[in-house]
Amino acid sequence: MQRILTLLIICVLAAPAWAQNRTVTGQVTDATDGSPLPGVNVLVQGTSRGTATDVSGNYSLEVGSEETTLTFTFVGYKTQSIVLDAQTVVNVALEVDFTTLSDVVVIGYGVVKKSDLTGSVSSIRGADLTKVPAVSPMQALQGKVAGVQVSSSTGAPGAAPVVRIRGQGTFNDSSPIYVVDGVIVQDIDFLNAADIESMEVLKDASSTAIYGARGANGVILITTKRGIQGQEYPTISLSAEYSVQQLQSKIDMLNGRDFATYVNQFAPGSYNNVDAVPNTDWQDLIFDTAPIQNYQFSAAGASPKIQYYIGLGYFKQEGIVEKSAYERVTLKLNNTFHLSKNVRFGNNFTITPYKQTNTGGNAVFATYRALPVVTPRDADGNFNAVPNVGNPLADIEYTNNADRGIRGVGNLFGEVNFLDNAFTFRTSLGVDAKYFKNRSFTPVFFVSPQQQRSQNLLIKKFEDQATVLWENTLNFQRNFGDHHVDALVGFTMQNTTSEFLRLQSQNILRDDEDFWYFNQGSSITIIDSEKDVNGADPKYNYSMLSYLARANYTYKGKYLFTATFRRDGSSKFTTANRYADFPSVAVGWNIIEESFLQDVTFLDNLKLRASWGKTGNEKIEYLKIYSLVDNGVNTVFGQGDRLFSGATYGITGNPELKWETTTQTDAGIEAGFFNNRLKVEIDYYRRVTSDILIPLEVPGYLGNGSGAQITFNAGEILNRGFEFNLGWESKLDNGLGYRIGAVGTTIHNEVLKIQGGGSVSGQLLGPNSITRSVVGEPIGSFYGYQVDGVFQNQGELDAYPHMDNAGVGDVRFVNTNGDNEIDDSDRTSIGSPIPTMLYGISLGLDFKGFDFALDFQGESGAEIMNYKETVRPDLYNFEAHVMDYWRGEGTSNSEPRPSEGGVNFLPSSRFVQSANFFRLRNVTLGYTVPRSITDRLAVKAARVYIRGTNVFTAKSFTGFSPEIANENPLDSKVDRGTYPVVSIYSCGLNLTF
Amino acid sequence: MKKNTITLCYRVMVLLLVAIPFSCSDFLDKPPQGKLVSSNFPTSASDAEQAVNAIYNTLRVPEYSFGLYPILDIMSDDAHKGSNLTDQRAVVGPYDNFTHVGTEASIKNWYSTLYQGVKRANVVIENVPNIVMDETLRTRYLAEARLLRGFFYLDLVRAWGDVPKITTVVAPLGLPRSPASEIYTLIEEDLTFARDNLWERHDERWSANDLGRVTVGTANALLARYYLWRGNFPQAEVAALAVINSHQYDLAASFGEAHSEAGEQGVESVFEIGSIRQEGLPIGGNQYGNVQGVRGIPNRGWGFNRPSFDLINSFEPGDPRLDSTVLDVGEWQDGIKIVGDTDTPDAYTNSLVYPGFPNGIGEKECYNQKVWTPGTNVPAQFGYNRRLVRYADVLLMAAEALNKNGKPDDALDYLNEVRARARGTNPAILPDITETNTDALNEIILHERRVELALEGLRFWDLIRTNKATTVLAPYGYRADKHNLLAIPQTEADLNGWLNNPNW
Q1: Which B residues, 48 through 87, put their C-beta within 8 Å of a C-beta on chain A?
Q2: What is the C-alpha separation between A250 and A456, in angstroms, rounded?
Q3: Which residues of B169-187 are buried (b: 16+ CB within 10 A; e: fewer)?
C-alpha cells in the first residue's frame, strides 16, 4: 500500500510545475435560455487541471502562461474550447447537444468520454423516450437505434415489446438485460420514461463483456434522473397527455354475400339466396377507439448536501378491444446524500403498482374466423351461436381476467473517493421485488354447445419474485502525463427467489366480483393445464457470484485500449461447469488527433475502433441438468383395485450443461464533418453464439420414453451485419434549425450447427411444427409446402405428383424430395422471420418556438406466416382475396378453386407474406410558449404539442400489423390472430416551474 | 488522507473484495425448490416401495401394450386392424399385411416404453441395496425389480433380437446393440434371481392389498415361457411344473370368469395388471381395453384388434370359449346390447381395404370380448385388468414341454384339465384328448393354445417359435427372412448409427 502511495505521489509531483499564473473567471450559461449551468467541467487543455462551475455557473481557474485553451464540457451540451489571449474573464454559453452522441457515455460500472470509448454504444436522451405513449420505454426505440430491433408482440395494453440487439442470438431467451442505476433487471416495463435521464445500448463485446454471463444478447443501461448538484432552486415539471387509439386498418374479409357465394361453389345450395344472407362485419363490432391518459409530476433539486428527485406518474391505456386495459402508477425517489467531499450515499427507488385486464384470449382470432352470415345477437339480445369458432362478443363478455401486481426496483449505494480522488469505491445493494396475482372468473353461460360453461370457474394465480444484488467496485482513474488510466475491479453477488401458487374452484355461489374468493365449501382444485400447483419458478430461483475487472488506457487521447474480464459463477450449473470466464479486448485510434489531420478543416472527428470478446447467456432452463423424480407414477394392486403411490426418475438430466457463449467481433468508424454538423458512425459486427442449449431426441434405450429429448449444448448461430448512423444538424441564418438522421442495420442470421448424441439431427422442432430451424437457414424459418401454381387441367394433374385429395383447380405443391408423391417429407423452408434490414429516418425542424418532427421506421427481408388463414378443419370466414378463385383453365395460377379447407389450406408458401413495412412512426408538432409570456405566469417553460404515432404504415401483409414478434424465436412472425397494434393520436402539455 | 484512514479503507476493501466471496463458497449451491432430484431418491424403505411400484406402472402405460395397438395379434392370423375403414389406417393397417416399416410410431413407442420399464427397474436395482431397511423386504423389492426387468427384456429380445443391454440407470450415448445371447443370459439371471427370492402367492408375509405383485409363481411361469421360446423343453418343464406343484394357483371356475371383473386377481392370475375404471394413467386406468373396446353403442372404445374369421373358425364345434372370446354385434353382454359402430361395415374383403391383400379373407364387425368390462361408458373400459400370465397358459406350457420331453401321458393330464374347464357341464363338447404321438399331440396343444389364449398377444410368438409363421402367415404377407423380427425404430437406428434388422 505504501508503495502505491509513493508511486502516486511521484506521479502527482511529476506533473509540470507552473509559473506566472493568472486567474481566469467567468460564467457558463445555457445558450438557449441563458440560465446558469452549474457543474460544468472547465479544463485547461493539455493538462489534467480543471474545475467545475458553481451553483451560479461561475468558475475560477488558475492558468499558466503557456496555456492557451480552456475546454468546457457538460453532459448533454456541446463541448466548447476557448482560446485565451490576455483576457481574465471568459463567459461561455453552451449549446445543447441534440444529437444522441453526447460527450460522456455511461458504460457498465462507470462512465467514459465519448472520444475514449472503444466499444459500440448507442446513447439515447431521456427526452426522446417520452415520444411514444407506451408502457415500456423501449417502444420509443423503434427505428431509432442502429442494431436494435424493437417489435410489438401484440397491441394489447401492457404487452411487453420484444427487443433484439444485433439479431437473434439463440434458440432460447434472446432478450437483452437492463441495468437501471446499477440494478440488473430483465425488463423495464415498470419504469416511467419521464424518469429516465439517459439510456445507453451496449452492443459489442467490449462494452457487454463486463456483464459476462448476462451480456450475450446486449445490455441496456438506464440512468434515471436526479437533482443536479448546485441547482438549489428545484425544477418542478408537470405534464399531461391524452391520446386516442384506433385500429390502423381492417383485414379485408369476405362480406356476407361474397361468403355465401364462395361457399356455394364448393357446397352448392348452402345459401339459396345470397342477397338475403346477413352481413356482419365482426371487426366493426370488436374494435373501437380507446383512450390513453398519461400524467407526470416531478421535482428535482439539490442542496449542498442532498440531491433529490421525486417523480410521480400515472398511465392508463384502454384497449381497442373491450375489457383490455393497463393502468400503472410509478413512484420514483432518487436521493444522494453528501456526507463529506469524499463520501456520499444514496438511493434510487421505483415503486410501480399496476393492473392489467386481459380480454378473451381467443377474441381477435375468433373475430377473424367468425362467419359474416351470422348476426351477433338474436332479437332478444342474446348471443347467437357462431359455428366453429364461438361468438367473439360472448367470448369477451364472459371473460373476466386481470393481473394486479406491484414491482419495486432500486438500490442503496455508498461511494467513497480517496487518495486524491484517484480511487472510488462503490457498494450498492439492489433489490428487484415483484408481487403478482392473476384472477380469472368465468360465469355460467350458454351460447352454443361448444361455447358454454355449466359451472362457473374461478382461477387465481399468485407469484412473488425477489432478487437481491450486491455489487462492489473499486475504480482507479489517473493521468500520468500523456497516459490516462481508468481501471476497475469488483465483485457482485445476486440471489433470486420466487414462489407461485395456482388454484381454481368451481361453483362459486354468486357471480358478483365481491364473491371471487375461495372459501369454505368451494372445492379448490389444481388448474387443469398446470403441472405444478405450488413451487418456485426455475427462471427466478438461482444465485450468481461474479468478479469483474476492466482497464482503459489512453495515450495522448489518440490511442485507446480497453480490456475487460468477468468471471461468473452460477448456481444453475453443476460444480464442474459452475464458473466461466468472459474476456474482451478493444482498441481505438482517434485519427483526428494525429498531426497530419490538423490541417483538414472540414473534419472534426475521425476514429477507428475494433473489439473482440466473449459473453454468455445464463438465461437457460437449468432444471435440465437434473434427473427429477416424478411422483404420481402410481400402480394398482389388490382384489379391490387400490391405487398405490409410485415414484421414479423422469427424463435423465444432462449435468454437463454449461453457458451459451457468444463471441463477437466489432469494427467501427466514427467521423464528424463541417463543425460536427454531419456525423457518421458505421459498425460491422459478427456474433457467433455457440454451445446453444437445444433439446435433442436421444436413443430410446436410455429409458426416457418415446421421443424423449435431453438438452445439450449443441447449437451454433451466426449474426452478422452492418450498422450505420448518419446525422446532419444545422441552423439557418433565419433561425430555422433542422436535423436529418438515418439509422440502419443489416442482419444475416444463420444456424451454423445443430448436433447431439454423436449425430447431426439437422432440424429443430418436430415435423408437425410450423417452423423448422436447419443448418444454413435463419432461426425459426417457416416450414411447409412450396406452391408453384394451380392445376389447370386434368392432364397437368395426372402429370404431377399430387395428394390423393387434390384435384384440378387446387394448388400444386413442389415435389421437393423427388419421389413420386406429395407428402410431409416434401415440406421445406418457405420463409424467414428475421428481417435482413432495419432502418429509421428522422427529420426535425425548429423555428421560433415551433418544433416539428417526423420519424419513419421500416423493416425488410422478413416474412410472416399467415397461420390464421391455414388449417381449417371447419368452415370459417375467408380473406377477400379468395374471390379471385380459379374458374377454369387459365383463370388463375395463384388462387385455387373454392374449398372449405383441405389441400389448399395446408400451411404452404401461399400463406407466407412479406413482412416488409415502412411506417410513419411519429409525427409531432409542438409549440414552446415564449418566455415573455411564461415569465409572467411564473412558469419557466411551457410547451404544447400534438402528435401521431403509427400514423401510416405501407405494407403488403394482409393482417393488422406486420410486427407479430414473439419471445420464442421458434414461433416468431407466425400470425395466429394477433391483437392489432394501434394508431395513436395525442395532445399534450408540458410545464416546468 | 491520514494513514490510519487509508488502512481502514484498505481493510474494508480487502474484506469486501476478497473475504466475503470466499466465505460464501456455498452461495452457489441452490437446489431446485419443490423438486426431488435423483441423487436424493430412493433413500428410505418407503422410497424403495414407491420406486418398485413405479416399475409396475409401466405395465399400464398405453404404449407398453405393443405401442398402443395390439399389433402382435393383428400380425397374427387371429385378428385384423378393426375399427372403421379409415381409422388409423396408416398407423395400424400396415401390420395386418406386413407392410409396416421402420418409421412406424407403434414400433418406436413400444420399444421406448419397454426401455422405460428397464430404467425404472434399474433405479431399484442400483439404489435399493444402499438403503438401510428391513433385509427381507429389500430382497423382495430387488427380486420384483429383477423379474420385471427380465420381463421387459423378454419382449425386447423377441421383438428386435439384438438390443443394447442396459443394467444401469444412466447409460452412455452411442452404445452398440448387444448380441441377443447376452440379453438371454440377463433374462435367465433376472428371472432365476426372482424365483429364488420372491414370495409364493399365498406367503403370509403378503398383505391382502399386495395381490398383483409378482411371486415365485410368476417367475417360474415366465421362466417356462422363456425356455419354450429358447426351445429348452426340459427346463421349461421344470419351471412350469414348479408353478403347478406349488398349488398356489388353479383354473377359474369358468373360462369366462378368468377374464371377467369377478375373476380379477383370482386364482388363475399368475401375473395380472391391476387397473381402475378411470381415464388416466396416474389415476389407475389402462387404455389397453379402451383401444379394443366396442365402438359406437355402447361407446367403450376404438374397436381395434378385430377377431378374424380364421380365429372364429378355428374353434371346435360347440366350444363355448368362442362366445367368450368374440363379442358380436347384436349380442347382449351384462345386460347391455352391443349395437356397434354404424360406420363399420359388417363384412368386407380386405383387398378393398388394403390393396394387395389376398381376396377372400373377410371380416365382420366384432370385438375382443376378453377386454370387456361391464358398463356403457369409456372410463369403465379403462378398468380392464390385463392378464399377462394365466394358469391355463402355465398348464399348456407344461403340456407342451412334457410332450416334447417324451411324457405324453403327463402332457395329456394338463391339456385335458384346460379342456375340461372349457367344457364345463356339457359332456357333448371338447372331448378329452388321447393322442400320444409327439408331433400330433404337439399340434393339438398348439391349437389348444390358440383358442384358449386367443387375442392375449401370445399367438404371433407361438407361431414364430414353432416355425409355423412362414406357412400360416404367408398369405398375409409374412416373409421369414424379415418379419421374424420387427424393424429397429428408424430414429433409433439413425441416432445410434446401427444397421437395422435383416431386410428392413
Answers
A1: 50-57, 59-60, 63
A2: 34
A3: bbbebebebbebeebbebb
CA distance, residue A414 to nearest chain B CA (Å): 13
Overall average pLDDT of the A555-575 stretch: 93
A149 and A220 within one domain:
yes
Q: Do B150 and B117 form a contact (C-beta atoms < 8 A)? A: no
Helix axes of B408-423 and B391-404: crossing angle, nearest 10 degrees: 150
Flag whether the ipTM exceeds 0.85: yes
Residue A489: predicted pLDDT: 95
pLDDT of residue B361: 55
A146 assigned to some structural domain: yes
pTM of the model: 0.85
B299-B300-B305-B306 Cα dihedral, nearest 10 degrees: -50
> What pLDDT is recorded for position A64?
79
pLDDT of A600 above 90 = no
pLDDT in tens, A857-874: 999 999 999 999 998 888
User: Which residues in chain B are closer than 8 Å to A754, comparing Cβ atoms?
Assistant: none
Whole-angstrom distance, CA of residue A197 vs CA of residue A226:
8
**A 608-647 near B (Cβ less than 8 A):** 623, 626-647
Give the start-to-end residue ranges of the domains of chain B. Answer: 43-75+97-198+472-504
**What is the overall mean pLDDT for chain A?**
89
Both A117 and A156 in one domain: the answer is yes
Rg over alpha carbons for chain B, rounded to the nearest Å, is 27
Domain B43-75+97-198+472-504 = CATH 2.30.30.240: no
Angle between helices B216-230 and B233-245 (to 10 degrees): 160
In A, which residues are within 8 Å of B69 by CB distance? Answer: none
**Residues of chain B numbered 5-34 and touching chain A (CB < 8 Å):** 5-7, 9-10, 12-13, 16-17, 20-21, 24, 27-30, 32-34
CATH, residue A203: 2.170.130.10
From first CA to last CA, the distance across chain A in angstroms is 51
SS3 label, residue B498: coil
Is residue A803 domain-resident? no
pLDDT in tens, A18-32: 446 788 888 888 776
> What pLDDT is recorded for position A15?
42
A128 and A176, same domain (yes or no): yes
* Burial class (CB within 10 angstroms; exposed 0-12, middle 13-18, buried 19+) of A384: middle
Q: Is pLDDT above 70 for A149?
A: yes
Residue B297 sits at φ, ψ, to 5 deg, of -120, 125
pLDDT tens figures, A466-513: 999 999 999 999 888 889 999 999 999 999 999 999 999 988 888 899
| Residue A217 sits in the same domain as residue A111 | yes
Domain containing A52 — which CATH number? 2.60.40.1120
Say which range, A525-529, A587-591, B28-32, B183-187, has the weakest mean pLDDT.
Answer: A525-529
Whether A737 shows a pLDDT value over 50: the answer reads yes
Is the pLDDT assigned to residue A850 strictly greater than 60? Answer: yes
Question: pLDDT tens digits, residue range A660-670?
Answer: 999 999 999 99
For A90, the domain range is: 2-94
Domain boundary (A71, A94, A117) is at A94
DSSP A628: B
Query: What does the pLDDT read at residue A17?
Result: 41
A534: closest chain B residue by CA: B34
Which of A702, A704, A763 to mutate: most B Cβ within 10 Å?
A: A702
The helix/strand/coil state of A652 is coil
Asked if B28 lies within 8 A of A698 by C-beta distance, the reply is no
Q: CA-to-CA distance for B227 and B235, rounded, in angstroms?
A: 6
Which B positions 158-197 lie with beta carbon below 8 A of chain A? 163-164, 166, 169-171, 173-175
